[in-house]
Amino acid sequence: QNGYSIASLYNNLNKCSINVNGRTFVQNIENLAKTRSIGLLPSISFIIGTVVGSGIFIAPKGVLMNSGSVGLSLLVWALCGVLSTFGALCYAELGTSFRKSGGHYTYLLETLGPLPAFLQLWIEFIFIRPAVATYVSLAFGQYVVEPLFMPCVAPTALVKIVTFVAAVNCWSVTLAARTQVLLTFIKMFALILIIIPGIMALVNGKTENFRNAFDSDSLSLTKLPLAFYSGLYAYGGWFYLNFITEEVINPNRTIPLAIVFSMVTVTVFYVLINVAYYTIMTANELLMSDAVAVTFASRALQGVAPAIPVLVALSCLGTLNGGFFSSPRMLFVGAREGHLPAIFSMIHIRRQTPLPAVLCLVQSHPFILFSQGEIFQLINFASFSRWLFIALATLGMIIHRYRFPDHPRPFKVPLAVVVIFTIVCFFIVGLSLYSDPWNTGGSCALTLSGVPVYYLTVKKSYIPERWKKAFSE
C-alpha cells in the first residue's frame, strides 16, 4: 500500500541495526542470511588447515614427557588419531541431523537442553578460546623469536606475541578465507619438508633411537591422560566445520566425506612426522627442545633450516585464523537463542564481518600476559572442559537416538563407535582430575561458575520475587 514489496517488507521485519561508537552493525534475526558456498574441497582444506597448526610442533614434547617412552608416545599419537576420527564421525552424524551452525553448543542445546549448552558457551567464551589463542600465539612466538637467540633462551616478553589474525577477520571475510587457503598449503609443505628427510634416514638404517622403544623408568598410568591431552590438542579442530554447517553445500554428503578424508590424512602425516623426529633426535634431545622443528631442521635440513621457523610460525597463524573464522558462529547462534547479548549476532553493515563476535574473542589475550610461557598447563586447563563437553555432546547423541528413533539421520555412525568414543573421553577427563588436579580442577570450577550466571541472566524466572525487588532497589 505504501510502495513496499513483500520481499523488502520481510527484510525490514527480519533485520535490525544498531550504531555503536560510529560503527553500524546489522542483525538478521532469522538466520543471518548466510548462503551455502563451501563445497567439498574447501571443507577438506578448512578441516586440515585448522587441525594442522602449532600442535604437531609443540605437542610431541608433552606426549613424550607424559608417556615416558618413544614407542608408547608413537602409540599415543596413533590412538589420538583414531579417537579424533571416531569423534569426527560422531560429529558428522550430529551435523547432518541438526543442520545448524554452532557446533558443540547447538548439539548440547538440541540433545541435553539449555543449561549444558550455556555452560559450554560460557567456558568457551571466558577461557577455552582465550587459552587456544594464547598457546598458539606462544608457539608462534617461540618459532619466530627463538632462532634469533639460539643457543640462549628467548626472552619471555618477546615470545608472547599477539598476532594480527583478529584484525584480518574484522577487516574482510574474503581476506580471512583466502588467508586460510594460502596458509593451509604452506603448513602442508612444512610437514612434507620434515617428513621426507626423516623417512629417508630411517630407510637408510638410522634406527638406533627406536631400539628398546618401550623401555621406560618414568611410565605412570596417571600421566597418560595428560599425554592424550597433548596429542588430542594437536588433532584439535576436526569439529570446526560443524561451526559453519549452515554455509556448507549439501552437508549430508560434504561433511562426512570431508571429515573422513581429512582425519585419515592428518593421522598418517602426524605419525610419520613423529617417526621423523625420533629418527633424527633422541628422546632426551626432544624433551630439552622448546621448538622441536627448529632442532630437527638444524640437524636434518641444514640448507633450508632458517625457513622452518617461518613455515611453522605461518602454520600457527593458520590455526589461529581458522579459530577466529569459525568460533564467532557459535556466538552468533548463542545470541540467536538468547543466551548472549544480541550484539554478538550482528555483522558490520559495510564489511559484512562478525566484528562484535571477533572482538569478543580478542578479549582473550590478557591471558598471554599471565601465562608465563606454560603452554602445557594451558593445554591441560583448556582440554578438560573442551573434552568434557565433547563427551556430553556424543552422550546426548546416544540419548537423542533412544528418545527420537525416527528423527532423520542421513549419516549414521555405528553405535559401538559412539559408545567407545564417549567412554574414552569421560575416562580421560575423569582421570585427568587425579593427574593434574590444580589445572583440571580449576577448569572444572570455572565451568561450574556458569551455573549461577545462567539462572541470573537467562532463566530469570527462577529468581525469587523478593530477590528481584532487592536487586531493583
| Average pLDDT reading | 76
- Main sheet overview: 3 strands, antiparallel
**Radius of gyration computed on alpha carbons:** 23 Å
As for the CATH topology, it is Amino acid/polyamine transporter I
Shape summary: globular
Number of helices: 21
Q: Class by helix and strand content?
A: mainly alpha
Name the strands of the widest sheet in spatial order: 1-2-3
> Based on the structure given, which CATH architecture is correct?
Up-down Bundle
The end-to-end span amounts to: 48 Å
Helix content: 55-70%
Strand/helix succession? HEEHHHHHHHHHHHHHEHHHHHHH
Give the strand tally: 3
Pfam families: AA_permease_2
Subcellular location: Membrane
Main location: membrane
Protein name: Cystine/glutamate transporter-like
Summarize the structure.
The chain has 21 helices and three strands.
Characterise this structure:
With 473 residues, this protein is mostly helical. The chain has a single domain, classed as Amino acid/polyamine transporter I. The protein has 21 helices and three strands. Strands 1-2-3 form a three-stranded antiparallel β-sheet. A hairpin with a 2-residue loop joins β1 and β2. It is globular. The termini are far apart. The N terminus is likely disordered.
Keywords:
single chain; 473 residues; mainly alpha; Amino acid/polyamine transporter I; three-stranded antiparallel sheet; 3 strands; 69% helix; disordered N terminus; AA/rel_permease1; Cystine/glutamate transporter-like; transmembrane helix; membrane
